[in-house]
Design brief:
Layout: H1 9-26, H2 28-31, H3 43-46, E1 51-54, E2 63-68, E3 71-77, H4 80-87, E4 107-111, E5 122-124, E6 127-129, E7 136-137, E8 143-145, E9 157-159, E10 164-167
Antiparallel strand pairs: 1-10, 2-3, 3-4, 5-6, 6-7, 7-8, 9-10
The structure holds FE2/S2 (inorganic) cluster.
């Protein structure tokens, strides 16, 4: 991983401190917006919904957020460095090989809902940070630090062509 994609410990502390301060300044009601349970269908229900995504415009290192059955889903075009780093990491408290989460290593597709209390994590260079209580996910969507118990969920994904994926089961 290049230096530009790594936050060292001092930077991370600084970043987390700023994020915490931002949450305090903005107010938890704004920064932490968990899905209301009635609007938060289970993955079983969601699997009946499908969302087609044109991935041709997502450059390496970029992410697009799409809606799948009303839930945010992060579609990430990972760089070669990110793929290599995730391949060599077992994850954190919910260990899972990256290969089990990304069918095609350069494309990671995860449900953008924190597994702690349902906030939407914010993208960072190392993965995601949930602003509500500080859960940190890596670039495979695996929980690395903080109170969230599980990795970000991986929805069913079909790679239809070089330009198109379908989230959900067709
Ligand atoms: S809801 Fe994400 S850390 Fe609590």
């Amino acid at each position: 991983m290049s230096n530009s994609t790594v936050l060292d410990n001092a930077d991370r502390r600084d970043f987390l401190g700023k994020a915490t301060a931002a949450v305090g300044a903005a107010g938890a009601a704004v920064a932490c917006w968990p899905f209301v349970s009635s609007m938060n269908p289970s993955l079983d229900t969601l699997e009946k919904a499908t969302t087609e995504v044109n991935i041709s415009g997502i450059a390496p290192g970029q992410m697009e957020t799409v809606s799948w059955g009303g839930k945010p889903v992060f579609v990430v075009h990972r760089t070669a460095e990110q793929v290599a780093a995730m391949k060599n990491s077992p994850g954190g408290k919910d260990p899972q090989p990256d290969a089990d989460r990304a069918k095609q290593p350069e494309w990671l597709v995860v449900v953008g809902v924190c597994t702690h209390m349902g906030c939407i994590p914010a993208r960072t260079e190392e993965g995601w940070l949930c602003p509500c209580h500080g859960s940190v996910y890596d670039n495979s969507g695996r929980i690395m630090h903080g109170p969230a118990p599980l990795n970000l969920a991986v929805p069913p994904v079909q790679f239809v062509s070089a330009d198109k994926i379908i989230i959900g089961e067709a």
